[in-house]
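Design request, tokens follow.
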């Protein structure tokens, strides 16, 4: 019997629309070639900055609740000039991640063949690590306020509070240890700034030490975030699973993807690991207004996020095949401009689909 997966598609803004369309082409190809094993049923949602300009909100009132009916959410990017970034991000992406308690954000950093990297490590081809980002609280708890609301009187005060709960720290740290157990080296690196942030991040460190005692088979390491930024560049071979707070992992993942070539190739998954709500798959990059509408965006981050989605849906073989097809494509030098090539978005997708036929 054919397995049907219901996917909510939210292309969002800017290049988000372009790269999600490419991802769907690849998913359709896989479904077609599956000989009836599975198919995807998509519902497209127009939420984003254009929707906001028309309706005064980034998502419909019942939008987050509607998402619960799906097996997964495939997301582009949100944000465009004309709508303040904090309005668009909180109104759509964070509304979904936090509303559906997608508390684990997984961001692999991989050095793809043929992609010029910004790191001179002798064994760069074999480097890959995975960032595990706390995705429900921390610096993005949204707690705070402002007085005088920007009246320009020079008296403004703003408070932005980070929230660290023992439960929130424990579940993401435990998730990192479980992830490490599935990997070769079995090592977890925890990143905080607990010398300066003496409450929340000290709690994180304490929970890390407590949970680590339950995983004697996993090697551990603890770093301050500033030193970790340097470590990413100087000793990437020391990294395998890196777990950090919402803000720190956000920053470090952009650094990681830039080192591996470009923001355009980085994939991610926002997971509710208990499976109570659907998970959401999206590239790490934003809506890239500087290149939007030109057909030159790199689709790999979003297509590789579809591979994470396939894996999550239990289509492990197809996920692997897609990832290999991406590697084969970059290996042959089919690259967009951000990674030193001259190919357009659609050329890269076409090559990935062609390589899929070879690997499947
Ligand atoms: P960005 O990731 O959109 O762009 C940063 C740089 O990377 C730009 O030079 C852009 O051209 C390049 N780039 C990004 N994606 C690319 C791709 N697929 N192919 C080739 N080059 C690519 O970040 P920026 O400029 O800080 O933010 C733009 C908008 O995106 C803002 O409104 C921001 O709030 C939003 N944003 C949304 C995110 C999301 O929806 N998850 C994440 C990050 C930013
Ligand atoms: Mg980011």
């Amino acid at each position: 019997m054919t397995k049907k997966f219901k996917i909510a598609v939210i292309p969002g803004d800017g290049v988000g629309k372009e790269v999600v369309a490419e991802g769907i082409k690849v998913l359709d190809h896989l479904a077609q070639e599956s000989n009836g094993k599975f198919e995807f049923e998509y519902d497209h949602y127009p939420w984003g900055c254009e929707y906001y300009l028309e309706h005064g909100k980034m998502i419909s009132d019942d939008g987050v609740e509607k998402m619960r009916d799906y097996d997964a959410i495939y997301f582009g990017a949100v944000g465009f000039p004309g709508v303040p970034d904090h309005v668009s991000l909180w109104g759509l992406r964070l509304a979904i991640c936090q509303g559906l308690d997608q508390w684990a954000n997984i961001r692999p950093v991989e050095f793809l063949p043929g992609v010029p990297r910004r790191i001179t490590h002798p064994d760069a081809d074999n480097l890959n690590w995975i960032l595990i980002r706390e995705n429900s609280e921390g610096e993005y708890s949204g707690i705070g306020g402002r007085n005088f609301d920007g009246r320009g009187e020079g008296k403004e005060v703003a408070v932005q509070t980070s929230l660290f709960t023992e439960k929130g720290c424990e579940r993401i740290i435990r998730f990192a240890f479980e992830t490490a157990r599935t990997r070769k080296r079995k090592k977890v690196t925890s990143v905080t700034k607990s010398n300066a942030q003496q409450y929340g991040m000290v709690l994180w460190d304490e929970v890390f030490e407590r949970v680590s005692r339950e995983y004697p088979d996993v090697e551990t390491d603890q770093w301050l975030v500033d030193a970790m930024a340097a470590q990413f560049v100087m000793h990437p071979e020391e990294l395998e699973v890196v777990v950090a707070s919402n803000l720190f992992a956000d920053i470090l993942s952009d650094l990681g993807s830039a080192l591996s070539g470009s923001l355009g190739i980085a994939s991610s998954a926002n997971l509710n690991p208990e499976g109570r709500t659907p998970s959401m798959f999206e590239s790490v990059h934003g809506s890239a207004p500087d290149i939007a509408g030109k057909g030159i965006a790199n689709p790999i981050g979003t297509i590789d996020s579809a591979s994470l989605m396939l894996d999550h849906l239990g289509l492990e073989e197809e996920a692997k095949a897609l990832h290999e097809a991406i590697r084969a494509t970059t290996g042959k030098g089919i690259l967009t401009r951000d990674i030193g090539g001259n190919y357009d978005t659609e050329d890269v997708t076409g090559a990935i689909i062609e390589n899929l036929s070879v690997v499947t």
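Comment from the thread starter after seeing the answer: thanks! The radius of gyration is 20 Å.
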